[in-house]
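dumping this here before i forget
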Amino acid sequence: MNLFERVKPLDAILATAEKKGLQRSLGAFQLTMLGIGAVIGTGIFVLTSEAAQKAGPGMLLSFILAGAVCAVAALCYAELASMVPVAGSAYTYTYAVMGELLAWTVGWALVLEYAIGASAVAVGWSGYFAGFLQNTFGVAIPAALANGPSGGGVINLPAVVIAMLVTWLLVVGTTESARVNAVLVVIKIVALTLFCILAVPVMNTAHFTPLLPTGVTGMAGAAASIFFAYVGFDAVSTAAEETRNPQRNVPIGLIGSLLICTVFYLVVASGAIGATSDPTFAQPVRDAAGTLLDPGSTALTQRCTELAGMGHEPLSCSHEALAHVLRSIGWTRVGNLIGLAAFLALPSVVLMMMFGQIRVFFAMARDGLLPARLASVHPRFHTPHVMTIVTGVVVTLAAAFLPVGKLADYSNAGTLFAFGMVAASVMTLRRSDPSRHRPFRTPAVFVVAPLAILGCIYLYFSLSLTAMLVPLGWGAIGLLIYFTYSRSRSYVGRGISDAVPGDPNIQPEVARPLRG
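structure:
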């Protein structure tokens, strides 16, 4: 069978989910809360500092650019998620439309989005946790245990701890995780609302000049990083198989969460740029010779240490950006409360990122592309516990040693590829299967989908060279695994289009044997 002919029919995908699916327990409100929980987090609480270093006040335009690309991608996601309400997100959609090989590459790319993204959030949480202890109780975590090597430390121990705790929570169960997440989402919304109330009224528009200190290139580079602040919305689609009335609730969760988060981002970013009395607060940090320093670099860390010694800590130097802004304008105690809110709420983003990753791997294992053992569902908790633990180990190791900015950029590289494939799948399916029922239809699809693809390409090439190369190397590893293991074990390739690994009761009586 030709690799590009290995297309899993939509009817077979839906049948597979019905035969051995995950428990449907989530409604529209829970999905929206899950989406907000995944979106509002490290992007606005932490990556605001990264964006300030790349674009200065121009990061406000970066938020708009990244949000626009996500908006058109969300419309494409909503159509496919309502049609195919099963676990797997972009991987499943691509399998149904573009074929197995491209589906594998998308699923493999989603590892960078979800698992590495979860690691980035864990590192971001660590910064707020350390700042909260320092400013509230006067307890300082040793630098060697609070930072990875690029930050002058050895291991980021708080990030390791939170990754392990979230892994345990996800093993316990989806409904329980969603309930905890809903509480944490409320905490984040309250914290951001309080920040806006205090920062926006004292905003000085003069601080927005120069608006683009690093030019359009810097603004686009910041948008490519800030893209991470939006991508959590697509994790809602990975929960479609665990959703009641998914045809109605998934589009609500996707689009509703994105709209709510966009409004918050623009207002909060404006307050962060203009609230302080220092007109250079949001401008990029440069060395003594005036050279712009790279975010997450050792040189930037050293320069920030020098500036702190002189009593000056720009936005780019803070590991807890929003709390730092409030402390800088005299609201020290409220700033500490914002730090507490981030400390309490950011784990919900780690949870949602890992939630999405686990469901993608669950779908891949259920198709025979990964070992069947990974698709095992816990008899008591009804969760894919084996894959949860495996994912937790990967997230923990990455969070322990890598900086937040680099992790976010690596995550974005995988995300942009997946989003582009979803947009292409929507257009292809409109041509190949126009009569299929679409509970949600992407408006002006042949305009919206190409815009999504072009936007993803533009943001990808706005990333750093290392971030652009990472998915290429990662993809090469994925293809090696596919051709040495997955290709010969594929259920579709063996003529099994509606089977579930590990459940002999629903396997076809006759199937082609494994090929070497």
